[in-house]
TrEMBL record:
Keywords: Transferase
Source species taxonomy: Bacteria, Bacillati, Actinomycetota, Actinomycetes, Bifidobacteriales
Taxonomy, superkingdom: Bacteria
InterPro entries: Glyco_trans_2-like, Glycosyltransf_2, Nucleotide-diphossugar_trans
Molecular function GO terms recorded: transferase activity
Glycosyltransferase 2-like domain residues: 5-133
Keyword Transport attributed: no
Protein name listed in UniProt: Glycosyltransferase
Length: 291
């Protein structure tokens, strides 16, 4: 089985970084390394990571600092460039990996030597009906989140690259200093443009927050325009479906409902990120019963 490095860009992630790292170490197959790249955090993100490292000395957690430039793209690149695994997993610091994520990713790239990038669906841990939401996300990403015919687009909250593929495209990916594109789609289009195959795996699952839906209409629409901006920057690539149309349609209802559900979770003292995979972790013997 191929080794997997986990790369987590982080900027002011004190609220969720410990939960994220907990999911990273509670895996059926251990990651070769877990790299947190801090990008000028002004909160106690680094302190939390350092304490977690001390509490888990056998998990090979590495804290790096990327202070030369503010931004997700340079921070992501810094971590990917320094990872040593055969496969490079990348996700956000508020994402929670399902307990078999590392094993699933390793198996995909081991069994399919032509796979150069892989992605999968996400569950939304701070929304109700998580199974329904996961199934819906799977339908969207497996069917319409594609380019140039039938090439899956990678999703930054749940993606992995073969290390050799990253080294091939690393100098080609856009820096996007104006911060107007989707960096994960940019990576996808550079892979596809170089003839490197992307694949979709429905069993490669992470969980993430739906907090984007809580942003203002202006901010949300600006985020949706990133789809158009990214493809405009890559005129040689085409897409038939536009997922942002579906997202804009759902936004008004979900924007109204989301804060009400967060109030309900707070009233019940429920931490949805911490509990999303807890039952499965316990079933697999990856945690103490007291956790």
């Amino acid at each position: 089985m191929l080794s997997v490095s986990l790369v987590i860009p982080a900027w002011n992630e004190s609220e969720r970084i410990e939960d994220c790292l907990t999911c990273c170490v509670r895996q059926t197959m251990p990651a070769k390394e877990i790299i947190v790249v801090d990008n000028k955090s002004t909160d106690d993100t680094r302190d939390i990571v350092e304490r977690f490292m001390q509490a888990h000395p056998d998990s090979n957690i590495i804290l790096m600092e990327q202070d030369a430039e503010q931004g997700l793209v340079p921070t992501r690149n810094y971590g990917l460039d320094r990872a040593t695994g055969d496969v490079l997993g990348r996700f956000d610091a508020d994402c929670m990996l399902r307990p078999d994520w590392v094993e699933t990713v390793s198996r995909v790239f081991t069994e399919d030597p032509t796979a150069m990038g892989c992605t999968g669906p996400v569950a939304y841990y701070d929304m109700p009906l998580r199974a329904v939401g996961l199934n819906g996300d799977n339908q969207v990403r497996s069917r319409i989140y594609r380019a140039d015919g039938d090439h899956p687009l990678l999703f930054g909250s749940n993606m992995a690259l073969r290390a050799t593929a990253w080294r091939q495209i690393r100098t080609q990916v856009c820096r996007d200093k104006a911060d107007i594109m989707h960096e994960d789609i940019d990576i996808s289009l550079h892979l596809i443009g170089d003839g490197l195959r992307t694949v979709y795996c429905p069993n490669m699952v992470t969980a993430m927050s739906a907090r984007r839906i809580d942003s203002s209409p202006k901010s949300f629409n600006a985020y949706m325009r990133r789809f158009r901006n990214t493809f405009a920057a890559h005129p040689d690539h085409r897409r038939f479906f536009k997922p942002e149309v579906a997202f804009r349609t759902m936004y008004p209802l979900l924007h109204t409902f989301y804060p009400q559900y967060q109030w309900y979770l707070r009233k019940r003292s429920v931490d949805p990120a911490k509990s999303i995979w807890l039952k499965e972790q316990r079933r697999l013997g990856l945690t103490d019963e007291s956790a």
